[in-house]
Amino acid sequence: MRAINAIRMGGMELLPLVEGGKGVAISTGITAGHWAACGGVGTMSAVNADSYDDQGRLIPQIYRGRTRRERHEELIRYAISGGIAQARRAYEIAGGKGRIHANILWEMGGAERVITGILEQAKGLINGLTCGAGMPYRLSDIAARFNVHYYPIVSSARAFNALWKRAYHKAASLLGGVVYEDPWLAGGHNGLSNSEDPQKPEDPYPRVLALRTAMRGFGLADTPIIMAGGVWWLEEWEHWIDNPELGPIAFQFGTRPLLTQESPIGEAWKRRLLTLKEGDVFLNHFSPTGFYSSAVDNAFIQELRHRNERQVAYTTERIGEHVAEYGVGPRKRLVFLTPPDLARVLAWEAQGFSEALRTPDGTLVFVTPEKAQEILTDQVNCMGCLSQCRFSNWSQQDPEFSNGKKADARSFCIQKTLQAVAHESDRDDVIEHNLMFSGHNGFRFGTDPFYSNGFIPTVRQLVERILTGR
User: Fold this and answer.
1) At a CB cut-off of 8 Å and minimum separation 6, what does 313 contact?
2) pTM higher than the cut 0.70
3) Taking the domain 7-264+447-468, which CATH number applies?
4) Would you list the DSSP string of 251-274?
5) Which pLDDT tens digit goes with each residue over 84-113?
6) Domain residue spans of the chain
7) Strand partners, 9
8) 356 sits in which H/E element
C-alpha cells in the first residue's frame, strides 16, 4: 500500500485520517480524544451530547416544559452542557496531539445558539467545526468569532460554490478543509439533490475533482478535501493519495469507529454490525428533516416503509373518480376515495390498520390504533430538536413556531429514537425497533478478517490497521 503521509490541516501537520461525527451521543469526547491521540482528527458530536453530574453520572435528558418553546429552551441548555462536557473529555484524552473537531447539523434546533454556547465556555478545547445538513452560510462567521477552523460538509461543487461566494470568502484563512460527503455511500443524512437519483450512485472521483477545480478557482488549491463515505481500506483509494489532480486529500471514517472498544454503543448494536449483509443498509426518505438518510433496514425502517405504502389520496368533495365515501376520525368526517382505493382501505382495516391519519399532501395513511396513539404522543411531546420538523410541524422561527403544514404521520420523532438507540443499544429489541444510521459499507464488518471471531479493536488498533493496510 502507498505510504500515508501527514498533510497540513487546520494549521498543523496531521495524519489524513478523520473520525466522522455521529450525532446524539455516538461520537463522544472519549472516541474523539483517542482518535486525536493517534495523530488524526477526532470528532465529537455537538448534537444533543451527553452531560454528567459531579459524580460523573449521566444526566438523563428529561423535558419538563409545558410548551414546545419551553422544551426547546431545555434542549438547547442540555446540548450546550453536553457539548462542553464532551469537549473537555476529548481534550484531556488527546493530550495535545492531533485535533479535536465539533460536529453540528445546521438543521438541528438552535444550531447556532448551541455551538456558540459551547465555544464560549470551552475556549481552547475545540480546534475546528464541521457542519452539514443544510447550507450553513453562517459557519464561517462563527469560526471567525472564536478563531477556529471550519470544515463545511458538501456533496457537490455547486454547493460549495454557493457557500463560498455568499459567505466563506470573507473568512478564507480559517477554512481548514472541505468535507465531500458522498450522498450514496455515507451514513446518516445525505445531501442528495432533486436532480440526483437515489438508485443510481455516481463515481465520487469526478465529483471530487469538480470540487477541487472550483476550489482552485477560489485560490484554495492547497486546502484539503476530506473524502467521506465508502472509505474502508485506504489501498482501495490509492489512486487518490498524492494525486496532483485532486490535491491534498484526507479520508473520513464514520462507520468503522462504531466498532471499537471506546465506542459508546451497546453490545447488541456491535453484534448487529458484525452480522450485516450487503444490502442491509437502506437509503430512505423518511427522515423528518426532509433529507435522504442511510440506515440499517431493520424493523423500524420496515414499519415506516409499510406505513407509507398504506396510503391513499382523498378529496373533501366528489371530484373525478373520487366518489366513494369514507369517514375519517372519531366523528367520521366524510372524505372521498376512488372505489379501488376504498377496497384497499377496507382490506387494511381487516388487518388491524384501522386508524386513518391525514398528511400534508392530501393523503391518508393507515396504522393500528396503538401506532396512531404513539404518533400523536410523540408529536405532542416535540421539543424542537430540528430547525424545522415535518413530523411535528415545529419550526424554530417565531412568531408561530410552525412550518405552516400539517404534521406528517409518514415520518417519526428522530430525537426519541436516536436517544433510545444511543443509550439502550445493549438490547436486541431496541436496535431492531429504532433508527440505526450506518454507511453503506457497514456489511464489511462481517467479511473483513480484521474482525474475525468477534474481535473488536481499540481506536489505536483500528488506526494502525488503516495505516498499514490489510
Assistant:
1) 322, 337, 338, 341, 362, 363
2) yes
3) 3.20.20.70
4) EEESSGGGSSTT--S-HHHHHHHH
5) 999 999 999 999 999 999 999 998 999 999
6) 7-264+447-468, 296-432
7) 12
8) strand 355-358
